[in-house]
Amino acid sequence: MVWTLVVPLKPLAVAKSRLRAGAGGLPGPALALAFALDTVAAALACGSVRDVAVVTDDRPAGRELAALGARILPEPPGGGGLNAALAHGARTVRAGRPRSAVATLNADLPALRPGELGRVLEYAAEFPRAFLADAAGIGTTLLAATAGKELGPAFEGRSRARHRASGAREIDVRDVDSVRRDVDTETDFRAALKLGVGPRTAALADGLLRPDRAAD
Ligand SMILES: Nc1nc2c(ncn2[C@@H]2O[C@H](COP(=O)(O)OP(=O)(O)OP(=O)(O)O)[C@@H](O)[C@H]2O)c(=O)[nH]1
Ligand SMILES: C=C(OP(=O)(O)O)C(=O)O
């Protein structure tokens, strides 16, 4: 089965506020863009991914993501936040190709490896709806719906429990840390660097983190 991924991206100026506000005062917008570019590049390199649609109103980010090969979709009219953006993205994809298998993927997975994403999507293909818990075990990094199933996104906060309660199958695959490793805090960032991040994040991370200082 091949998938269309829907990737949400906030305007960079307000993205990654927890990284920006943390003790290290990291450059949120620049990191958010590098994370998104590395996430989308890795997703496009996955054999199970047909294409990637990014939902964003950030024009400069949209141009760079389009140059990688992503389709750029605007936020829904009236906004509505992350879940509205994801539902709108999935609807727009299926307006063009109604039988698409659709999965959302957060834009903050800079360590993402195409092979690990492929194994997660292979598992998801066996269920109407499925999701992958994040590294913290509280949130969600991927939510998938096969043909004919509504996505039903319920992200933000304790979304793992919400997605489970919604009837989606929890994806239980070992050794897919790169798909679970979202980066919200400096501690997360260090964990992603340990896994190995994509080239745009690596170039930016160089010299950004002092190894001697306690994280967060
Ligand atoms: N298109 C779109 N994407 C969003 C929206 N809110 C969050 N996202 C994206 O959803 C994913 C998870 O978002 P969050 O962790 O809530 O936000 P963040 O900017 O990554 O980090 P914080 O500012 O620290 O919360 C990221 O890929 C965000 O860019 C939204 O309203 N619209
Ligand atoms: C939106 C989510 O991610 P984050 O942990 O980045 O807020 C989520 O896990 O539902």
TrEMBL record:
The keyword Nucleotidyltransferase applies. Residues 38-155 form the MobA-like NTP transferase domain. It catalyses: phosphoenolpyruvate + GTP + H(+) = enolpyruvoyl-2-diphospho-5'-guanosine + diphosphate. InterPro entries: CofC, MobA-like_NTP_Trfase, Nucleotide-diphossugar_trans. Gene3D superfamilies: Spore Coat Polysaccharide Biosynthesis Protein SpsA, Chain A. It is an enzyme of class 2 (transferase). Keywords: GTP-binding, Nucleotide-binding, Nucleotidyltransferase, Transferase. Pathway: Cofactor biosynthesis; coenzyme F420 biosynthesis. GO terms for biological process: F420-0 metabolic process. Pfam families: NTP_transf_3 (PF12804). GO terms for molecular function: GTP binding; phospholactate guanylyltransferase activity. Its EC number is 2.7.7.105. Guanylyltransferase that catalyzes the activation of phosphoenolpyruvate (PEP) as enolpyruvoyl-2-diphospho-5'-guanosine, via the condensation of PEP with GTP. It is involved in the biosynthesis of coenzyme F420, a hydride carrier cofactor. HAMAP family: CofC. NCBIfam families: F420_cofC (TIGR03552). This is Phosphoenolpyruvate guanylyltransferase. It comes from Streptomyces cinnamoneus. The lineage of its organism: Bacteria, Bacillati, Actinomycetota, Actinomycetes, Kitasatosporales.
